[in-house]
Amino acid sequence: MADTMGHSAATATRNTSVALGFCLLAVAPQIFEFIWSIGTVFGWGAGRGPATVLISHATALVAGAPAALLGAIGGETKKASSDVLLALIYSYPLFAVAIVTLFMTIKSAQDYIGGVILMALALFALWASSDLQGMRGFSFGAGTAPRMFGGLLVALSAGIALTGLLNEGPALAHYAWRGPLFVMCAILFFALAIRPLGLVVSAFVSFMIAALGSHETRWLEAAIVGICLTIGCALLFPYVLGLPMPMFPRFLAQ
Amino acid sequence: MELFANLAHGFAVAFSPINLLMCLIGALVGTLVGVLPGIGTIATVAMLLPITFGLPPVGALIMLAGIYYGAQYGGSTTSILVNIPGEATSVVTAIDGHAMAKQGRAGPALAIAAIGSFFAGCVATVLIAVLGAPLTKLALAFGPAEYFSLMVLGLIFAVVLAKGSVLKAIAMIVFGLLLSMVGSDIETGASRMAFNIPELADGLGFATVAMGVFGFAEIIRNLDAGAEMNRDLVQQKITGLMPTRKDLIDSTPPILRGTILGSILGILPGGGAVIASFAAYTLEKKLAKNPSRFGRGAIEGVAAPESANNAAAQTSFIPLLTLGIPPNAVMALMVGAMTIHGIVPGPQVMQKQPDLVWGMIASMWIGNLMLIIINLPLVGIWVRLLRVPYRLMFPSIVIFCAIGIYSVNNAPVDVILAGVFGLVGYWLIKHDFEPAPLLLGMVLGPLMEENLRRALLISRGDWSVFLTRPLSAVLLAIAAFLLVLTVLPVLRAKRDEVFTESEN
Amino acid sequence: MTSIRALAGACAAVVASLCGFVATSEAQTYPTRSITMIVPFAAGGPTDVISRIVTGHMAQTLGQSIIIENVVGAGGTTATTRAARAANDGYTLITGHMGTHAASVPLYPKLAYHPEKDFEPIALLAGTPILILARKDFPPKDLKEFVTYVKANAEKVNAAHAGVGSVSHVSCELLHSILDVKPVGVPFNGTGPAMNALVAGQVDYMCDQIVNAVPQINAGTIKAYAIATPERNPSLPDVPTTAEAGLPTFQAQAWNAMFAPKGTSPAILASLNAAAVKALDDETVKKRLLELGSVIPRPADRTPQALAALVKSEIAKWTPVLKPAS
Q: Name one Pfam family in it (chain C) (predicted).
């Protein structure tokens, strides 16, 4: 995979795109909450509205976090808001990593990127457990263990990323999109449909959606197998194993 | 001898036609449940509980017990064939079992799993009958400090079983530990990292994460362009169904060692059975002349953990039968079944309900016999299943997994979470992280944290309890010894050498 | 004239009876399909066993099967939230419990339902007495000694419980608030492991439901100081009540009761209540419940009104005990 010709130019472009990717990763939770918050406009789900999300995260990233950082240096102990903490604990370290990435030669992209993403997960866990109580005397608080393991994982993932910089190793493996996309769609459809539409409809439709994930699929054959499988499941799960689940769409059953 | 009288009585009870039928039904349902991905024994036993209402209590319990150990046989099947461990105990089996299947040796792997399980089941049954009462002391000698040390040892096993980089394996364990922290805190009830999602309030289910990082991730990976070649190869290569003479000779010592380890660890309530399979695998890898074969289709890596988990499944009945205290969730359901019939098990259950106790012990042996008779011919059918074109197989697995996960808690969110973990698993594969240590960390994490905190609460914050209590100190010493063996730089260099060699 | 009057009278009678028929028809035709009973705890636990025993008989009366759906999580509040949001057509019911319908209010500040506002009470099914238990070599010999010992050694003793929000946890909190002590509470994952630790002597005492404890007490592996009910229990005739043993203020029962989502029609509620009451009068059901050590509610306590009053009084009882703890 790794091309030896024009090595420096290739790594240069690679590094910028990797660094850009890390920057995106650094604001991924904020973006996720923003997308999620759009749903509240239509009355789905609960939470803050999109405008509030956008403004509070933007101020936290640009102003709140640096202020809190300076305050901490100045000896102030003011309780920072959750958004500011997210920026401080999660986004800033990843921005720092992204900047560092620009000046590094990545010897093994597999290890380096893997390590950094794992570090992102660990930082996120550190943020998620930041509101929990710590040690109380001799007894552990709710937050002690998550923070301990979160910190440990940050260190370990930094180690992995470092090996990716120091040791030669495999480049980034190729990610396919078709399989993951359709398998995920099938799973999502099943999850959303099982209660309102029942086992029969959701199993068959999910089967067909999943079948889209492979270019080898032959449609007639898949439909026949899908029907047989649906009938098999409809007999096996509710009757043989006695698991209570809706069989047919709710509007038909009533 | 009283023992023989008791056993004769037990066999007389177990050989009554109705109980034989119950045992057979239990074994069949258990096999089915074990084979179907996602559906756990707990869910099935819970669902079948009402059926036992109308049955005589002995028959009902024989059936439920049959489901429990039947699922241990069946669980190895999906691990080997499609790399989806249905239970925590069959995670390790998937490592070498599925590697064997990829080499066209699914038949021998399945057969050895069944044979090992049968042997272990027989030995463990005898053990329950002969030493049940004295062994109870072990279950009582294990306090929070001992459990914590045992869990530390278990995590060290997870490092040892890693194929590649030790650093990555440790990182995966810690990632698993972090995932296990999601949910309610045991001591304060505070919600940790659950983001107000009600389905996360009790944490991530093992089945959910296992289906994701093993099942869905494996499917997604197999759909990658270029993966067809490998798959077709698997389908064409299938060689003999039964293990060769060499396989049998290779597997005999691991089966023996696995049985012993499993029998001992199974008695410990909570986590014993899981650690048993990991411990058995680690032991084999450490004893092997060429440890690099492990993870690449070593038959010992199937024989030892499968024997260990079945032995543990049997001996985990000991606390229930001698103390009346259920050591795990499935046993708690059995206690429920007994209470529905007006039998509340306690320390005197052996004296008060000899029919029940000895009938059940005898039925375990009969059940194991039935299971091997059922499972050996099934090997042929399972292997033939591998010849089904993958384009039809993978949507079917997706559906089975989805239904299975949904059935555990009747929660659609669990299915979505499993999908998310499928993507996580795909990412892990792409960066050469191993999912097995992650799952072990997830299973052992809560046990480790809870017992650490319990031990510190009882000792009022005195950390020395882990060293002053002899059993705990011994376990920690073994753990330290293993750790030193694993991370010694010299050995590590050798490991890396072996690693790169076999990758090419 | 008379004939017309007679005709009108007959018509009126027919209309009246029709009206009556229409009014009762909903209750008479209900249920037309199987009913789902949500049990907020794992199968095999006390709440589950009680639900299964009672609904088994109710299904015969109602002529439709009742499917038990065990939904576990967050001390039963996950299941109760789901039940509160279910359609109020009488086909989704829940077996509520002291934890889900009373103690949850102070324990979970973000509770997504309110036991009084989101549910229609149907009937109280059974009460499970709570015992004060200790390891067999714990020094105090009776409850009086226990009280003085715990007060004197509050820093040293360990109380086990089966997890935050469990019956053993909240009832021990009640005991501690009465004794005005704060000993270390050692949490376990369920009653099984907690009992194991008590039998092994790793912890000193715990409060637990009678079902799990009877065989251990009879075998002498643990000892019981008192039972927190007004009367002694037939399955443990030698264990004194807390009133007899000198701590009359400690009264606690893990009660189980049937609820429907708010707004379920009164006719349906009445027929469910009638079926539940009939089940509680059945000899086999009674025998099975008594074998569990349960207390069967008196006829006066089986009405929806009595259950509503019980929920109200229980919330009032647990709120001051559990508020400072959480």
A: TctC
